[in-house]
Amino acid sequence: MTEKKVVELLVSGGQATAGPPLGPALGPLGVNVMAIVNKINELTK
Fold first, then answer.
1. 3-class DSSP assignment, residue 25
2. How distant, in Å, are the alpha carbons of 2, 26, 36 from that of 45?
3. Contact 40, 10 (CB under 8 A)
């Protein structure tokens, strides 16, 4: 079973990028950072 982790971040709606704070927080977790960035921007535009 995979381990679940919670990452709390604050980014401006529609302006998330793969740079700090998202990239450094999510990259080490092995997730697709760009997919998450695109989803955040899609939901907050």
1. helix
2. 31, 21, 14
3. no
